[in-house]
Design a protein that fits this description.
The chain is built from 21 helices and 23 strands. By secondary structure, the protein is α/β, with parallel strands linked by helices. The chain has three domains: about 170 residues, Dimethylsulfoxide Reductase, domain 2 (3-Layer(aba) Sandwich); about 200 residues, Rossmann fold, CATH 3.40.50.740; about 130 residues, Barwin-like endoglucanases (Beta Barrel). Strands 16-20-17-19-18-23 form a six-stranded mixed barrel. A five-stranded parallel beta sheet has the order 3-2-1-5-6, sandwiched between helices. The protein has a three-stranded parallel beta sheet with strand order 9-10-11, with no helix packed on it. Helix 4 runs antiparallel to helix 7, helix 4 runs parallel beside helix 10 and helix 7 packs across helix 8.
Length: about 575
């Protein structure tokens, strides 16, 4: 599925995703589709900008995703809206799937999701009867302990209705950060070499061993979210992680349960941070390696539509700065494995020659066409890549059939209780990007929005607690606390709260739960139990926040008045 195809869909199901805050280019495509007559169904516990332009908004309770998806599947089948011909000819596992969804009537799902049964029926009918239909899902699906099950559930909807194998249909996973897709493509996963080639396959492993001239392990590696356990709890010294090399990442800000992360970094024998600015992880590093930023080097990104796209250097970096790949090859050489490339094209050519799905995506072709979508298997200029997958209903399985997976819903791992009566979810907002490593160093953006951020709360909850807009409040969970400003809004349900994770003082990941999806190993950022407390002495709170902010910026060597790095 290519991004331009969004505009020509008959129906768009936006599930746990708000492009207006996260991906402005995608958001613009959605708006253009709306202008062309596309019907939009948004599933989100908040009244987001996407929800406001939607034909239907299913404002579900957080953590009930799979119950709602299963109920939509139940309606599609029970009302005879399924594409039975497509199911018979191109899928398997359907009968077993039906047994699972049988109990998920709209009324049953209403009790879990708090979405009225009739609204579930209307949404299912609209999606099933309006072709081509497309699904976009974001972190509101992926950051749960049942994330993979929900993704499979959304795939079930597309399979049931025959919405695979053609333009403007199928499923679009919209990744959370820039080039996350590219990182996965290039093998930044514990179970894959570049090109999604399994590390446990002997033939594949032999191919990479021959190319790189070293023996390679046949064991799946450690997921990044397992690092705390492997540092803090592993008793086998041969399995315990002793060194942690972190680049382009700030786990001391972005990972869940930050108290545990800080302990992990402090107890790890050796921590290297490689980044463009100082950040909170750098405060725990033994060695800091400065690298070039996005405008100071060139390379290749993978776009949201699987499109490889070149990007170019805009300015020359300061003298002495090296790119990430230059630093890595120098360290590799120093450690005994000589590594030398003249430029990124050499690296890219080696990689595509080892990856059949990427082989045709040459620099020459990217230069001519702007973007090349994988799979692209031939280096001839005639092979322009694959705009959409599963053409003709042929899937990437051995028998070419799509697989139905039926799974029961279960609640989030940590739900509200007497001590922590509210729920917390992390979200995004326009203004700053990700953990603010870049945007936090921009004075203009800091003038628009700065510490300690906001907590979105329903107006009735605020009235009950005597809170007003802009008032500093204390947010607590079983794992810690932070201080932020209260933002009353009608856009969220009573009992639910929402915070962004980019603030240093209002660091909501002090609160979040590190429980993981068993397959993806993604933390449950989108649901944990919390408590909001009023701070009586607001002047003290204001002074306290300022002191904390100044202290952190001083530790990082950032001038509190100018936004520039402090003089050495």
């Amino acid at each position: 599925m290519g991004l331009p195809e969004i505009e020509d869909a008959g129906c768009l199901l936006c599930f746990g995703y708000n492009g207006a805050d996260s991906h402005p280019i995608v958001a613009r495509r959605i708006v253009r589709g709306k202008q062309k007559g596309m019907k939009i169904i948004t599933v989100d516990p908040r009244v987001t900008e996407t929800a406001r332009i939607s034909d239907m908004h299913l404002q579900l309770k957080g953590g009930s995703n799979l119950a709602l998806v299963n109920a939509m599947a139940n309606v599609i089948w029970s009302e005879g809206l399924a594409d039975t011909k497509f199911i018979e000819e191109h899928t398997k596992g359907f009968d077993e799937f039906l047994k699972v969804i049988e109990k998920y009537t709209p009324e049953y799902a209403e009790n879990i999701s708090h979405v009225p049964a009739e609204e579930i029926r209307k949404a299912a009918r609209l999606y099933a009867t309006t072709k081509p239909a497309m699904i976009l899902y974001g972190m509101g699906v992926c950051q749960f302990t049942q994330a993979v099950d929900v993704v499979k559930g959304l795939a079930n909807l597309a399979l049931m209705t025959g919405n695979f194998g053609g333009p403007s249909m199928g499923i679009g996973p919209v990744r959370g950060q820039n080039n996350v897709q590219g990182a996965c493509d290039m093998g930044a996963l514990p179970n894959c070499y570049p090109g999604y080639q399994s590390v446990t396959d002997p033939e594949i492993r032999a191919k990479f061993e021959k190319a790189w001239g070293v023996p390679l392990s046949d064991k799946v590696g450690c997921a990044i979210t397992h690092v705390p356990h492997r540092v803090l709890e592993e008793t086998d010294e041969t399995k315990r992680i002793h060194a942690y090399y972190i680049f382009g990442e700030d786990p001391a800000q972005s990972d869940p349960d930050l108290a545990e992360i800080r302990e992990t970094l402090d107890k790890c024998d050796f921590v290297i941070m490689q980044d463009i600015y100082m950040n909170k992880t750098g405060l725990h590093a033994d060695v800091i390696l400065p690298s070039t930023a996005w405008g100071e080097h060139e390379g290749v990104y993978t776009c949201a539509d699987r499109g490889f796209q070149r990007f170019r250097k805009v300015i020359e970096p300061d003298p002495g700065l090296k790119t990430d790949w230059e630093i890595i090859q120098e360290i590799s050489t120093a450690m005994g494995y000589p590594m030398h490339y003249e430029n990124t094209e050499e690296i890219w050519n080696e990689m595509i020659d080892l990856c059949p799905s990427f082989k045709g995506a040459t620099y020459e072709k990217m230069e001519k066409y702007g973007s090349v979508q994988w799979p692209c298997r031939d280096k001839s200029m005639e092979d322009k890549g694959t705009p959409y997958l599963h053409k003709g209903g042929n899937f990437a399985t051995k028998d070419k059939r799509g697989v139905f997976y039926g799974t029961d819903w279960h609640p989030p791992i940590e739900v509200e209780n007497d001590e922590y009566p509210m729920s917390l979810s992390t979200v995004r907002e326009v203004g700053h990007y990700s953990v603010r490593t870049m945007t936090g160093n921009c004075r203009t953006l800091r003038n628009l929005e700065d510490e300690p951020g906001w907590i979105q709360m329903n107006t009735e909850d605020c009235k009950r607690m005597g809170l007003v807009k802009g008032e500093l409040v204390k947010i607590l969970s079983k794992r810690g606390y932070c201080i932020t400003r209260c933002l009353p809004t009608e856009r969220v349900k009573p009992g639910a709260t929402y915070m962004t994770y980019q603030w240093w003082i209002g660091a909501c990941n002090e609160l979040t739960n590190a429980k993981l999806d068993p397959i993806s190993n993604t933390p449950e950022y989108k649901y944990c139990a919390c408590r909001v407390e009023k701070i009586k002495d607001q002047q003290w709170a204001e002074n306290h926040v300022k002191e904390l902010y100044d202290e952190i910026r001083t530790q990082m060597g950032v001038c509190t008045s100018c936004g520039k790095g402090a003089e050495s």
